[in-house]
Amino acid sequence: MVWVFRDRIISTLLGLRRDATSRRFAVRILAGVLPALLLGWLFSDLVEAVLHRSAGVIALSFVAGGLIMLRVEQQATRRARSGTVGTLSLPGALGIGVAQALALVPGVSRSGATIVAGLAVGLDRAEAAEFSFFLAIPTMAAASAHSLLALRGQMD
Fold it and tell me: Which of 57, 61, 113, 132 is the most buried (most CB within 10 A)?
C-alpha cells in the first residue's frame, strides 16, 4: 500500500507546513487512527486472551459484519455518494476510526469496517476504499510494532 500511494504520501508529508489540504488530510488520518491505537493499547490483552479464543465471537462477528455491510450497501446504492476525503468532517473521520477499532474483535474485517463506515458518512466507494488504505498504513505499523515488542524476548 505504501508503494502504491507513495506519491500521495510524499506530497502530503512535504506539504504539511505550507499546504492546508495536506494538513487537513493528515489530521483526518490521525483522527481515523487514534481510536484503534487507543483501544488496541487499552484492550489488547483482553482481545488476545478472551476474544481470539472464542469461536462464537468470531462467528457472530462474521455474520453481524456481513449484515451491516449489506445494509449500508443498500443505502449507498439508493443515494448518490460524492463525498471525498477533502470534504470529510473530523467527526466523520473519527467515526471511521471507531469502525476500524472494531476490527480488534476477531472476525471483523478492518478494511470492510472502514469502507462501510466511509460509505455511511457519505464518501463514495473509491474515496472510502482509499481512506481505508491510508488508515491501514499507521494502524498496521503500530500493530506490528506492538507484536514485535511483545515477542522481543522470544526472538533470537
Answer: 132
124: left (phi over 0), alpha (psi -120 to 50) or beta: beta
Using CA atoms, how far apart are residues 74 and 27, in angstroms rounded to an integer?
A: 30
**Which residues, in sequence order, are CB contacts of 12 under 8 Å at separation 6+?**
22, 25, 26
Which three-class secondary structure state does DSSP give residue 150?
A: helix
CB atoms within 10 A of CB 130: 19
Cα–Cα–Cα angle for 80, 28, 106, rounded to 5 degrees: 85
Is the model's pTM score more than 0.90?
no
User: How buried is 138 (Cβ within 10 angstroms: 0-12 exposed, 13-18 middle, 19+ buried)?
Assistant: middle
- Per DSSP, the three-state class of 83 is strand
